């Protein structure tokens, strides 16, 4: 991140907090509907000090990690098969496009019936809500590989899983990264959505508790945490991998 | 001893709905250790012919025989070097060179020993740990040649490997290529559109006619090496080849 943009961002966020405080103080909306930044901060400190915040974050992130891992492995496998075998693309490919259009929370009723109110159910929702985006980007990535890479590799004796591991996946990696990024965003929405509806631990559950207790500062606080985790994973982790891959592959 | 034999190779190009006869029955016999250059008007299918020999494409009619046995697929005894090298950007130079050995399951230490020999031969030792985006076009082609030689193929198939190089780099590689050929005693098939290049390198130059192409004439060159681009004694041969080529280019 460049220095001037960082300065601008800091000023911007300070301004938001100041305006927020002023609006809260003006009492346009009653305090139980619009908390002040101070109250939200207080709530954050409180949930942090009794450990429930970190337990919630940990639970949600663990579910995300397991669900996303399943989605990445399954999605890549399916995507490679679709890209390399035309029959798979013509049959399963059309189904994947359909499944991709199902919103993540729409999987929740099915997950509850199949898995009950368990971690497994939430992980299932996380995995299916991100898997097909990864499948599609893997497919596109493998399809757009310079054909000479594949020909050279086959010529030198690579085939089957060897070809997939040593050529297809690394060659498609710039595409895969953007697929993982998209997949993670879907998975994160999936986890939080499922936790809200399952009401079984995690950040989504804490959000729901806030709603049930009419604790508006908790709702604000948890939403902030969800957003911040998003910024960290997207803007720091993925950005770094992406930059590295792009320069290595000579794309930048 | 005959290393390669092409018998009546016919190949159609598919353009949307209609078919275009590219190769109209190519016959060619190549002895072990020969350096054969294929020249022809652009679009005559000489590169396609090379790809058929490599087993990356199948002919519509006719057959290629390697050591008397028909060629049915691609294999490491016939290694192709592409015009742009088709090096893998995700691998370091040394790993690129060792790729085929890795596919063959040769252990790491042994791979390093073999690759070192060819990295030295191609003057790449300093660049073993570089990524391909850090190399000039000429260096990339050196890596591509080293990667092919490491496979110890019977036949080296080169598809206009020097076409994208600047004149100085090319002239240097033309001399080196002759030394490599003398040192390794490989059978080489070298596609080029550059007549000078063909006369400098080849023990034989095969001139392709325009589509549907056949081999119009084979010219033997028995002249001392290393031959230089500026050698006046090669001039009459170049004129002879050009006089064969010119009417074919006009037909295009």
N-to-C series of helices and strands of chain A: HHHHHHHHHHH
- Number of folding domains of chain B? 2
Q: Over all CA atoms, what is the radius of gyration of chain B?
A: 18 Å
End-to-end separation of chain A:
16 Å
User: How many beta-strand elements of chain B?
Assistant: 10
Specify the CATH homologous superfamily of the largest domain in chain B: P-loop containing nucleotide triphosphate hydrolases
Order of helices and strands of chain B: EEEHEEEHHHEHEHEEH
Main sheet summary of chain B: 6 strands, mixed
What's the overall geometry of chain A? globular
Low-pLDDT regions of chain B:
none
CATH topology descriptor of the largest domain in chain B: Rossmann fold
Describe the structure.
The complex is a heterodimer of chains A (252) and B (252). Chain A is an all-alpha fold. Chain A contains 11 helices and no strands. Chain A is globular and about 70 Å long. Chain B has 2 domains: 2-77 and 153-250, P-loop containing nucleotide triphosphate hydrolases (Rossmann fold), CATH 3.40.50.300; 87-152, no CATH class. In chain B, strand 4 (61-66) and strand 5 (69-70) form a beta hairpin. Chain B is globular, with a radius of gyration of 18 Å. Chains A and B meet through helix 7 and helix 8 of A and strand 6 and helix 2 of B.
